[in-house]
Amino acid sequence: MSKIEQIKELARPLLDRHNCDLVQATLRREQHGRVLRLMVEKRGSNPLEGSGVNHSLCASISRDMGTLLEAEDFMGDEFVLEVSSPGIERPLIDPVDFERFKGHKAMIKTRQTIDRAKRFTGVIGDVEENCVCVELKNGTKAEIPFELITKANLVFDSSVFEVKTGE
Questions:
Q1: Could you tell me which residues come within 8 angstroms of residue 77 by beta carbon, excluding any fewer than 6 positions away?
Q2: Does an H or E element contain 148, and which?
Q3: Contact (CB, 8 A) for 134 and 122
Q4: On the CB side of 7, how many CA atoms lie within 13 Å of its CA?
Q5: For site-directed labelling of 15, which of 25, 40, 43, 78 has its Cα 20 to 30 A away?
Q6: In which band, very low, low, confident or very high, does the pLDDT at 11 lie, cut at 50, 70 and 90?
């Protein structure tokens, strides 16, 4: 099991106590050392209405996770732990994410060309075992195999919000 998978396993019970789900975990070596980033959201939250995650919750999860990692002497040397909300343009990591956000606008990048493109922006449609169908702006549909996706996230669409000016 990889280090990041072990970290995810350690984080799950802790996040359960905070009624949160782990959206994404990354561990990278950067200029100033290793950085462990945990992106979390409250269970059942809607990114368009907020993730339910505030500064206080991030600080609490960070303290608890830091204590847990230190007690297990899991990281060895020094590291920076960052806990954050995924934001309104939340990443889509697993097929479950695509199913959950069916009907929402998303941007998907692929490692290989599909129908002469590597970047697709459209509405998430049917989600099958091996691929996701995206309805593009021109009315066509693209079937994108999950194995080819390198990055995917929700797209904030300001047109769904009404802006009121002074009366």
A1: 33, 34
A2: none
A3: yes
A4: 21
A5: 78
A6: very high
In a domain, 72, yes or no: yes
DSSP state of 46: B
Rg (CA), the chain: 18
At 41-78, the pLDDT tens digits run 999 888 777 778 999 999 999 999 999 988 877 777 78
Strand order in the sheet with 79-84: 20-30, 33-42, 79-84
Q: What are phi and psi of 110, to 5 degrees?
A: -120, 160
CA angle 116, 119, 124 (to 5 degrees): 110
One domain, residues 120 and 56: no
What is the token pair recorded at 12?
């799950």
CA angle, residues 14, 19, 24, in degrees to nearest 5: 65
pLDDT reported for residue 161: 47
Q: Which of 18, 31, 5, 19 is nearest to 63 (CA)?
A: 18
- Provide the residue range defining the domain that includes 110: 95-160
Distance CA 163, CA 35 (A): 39
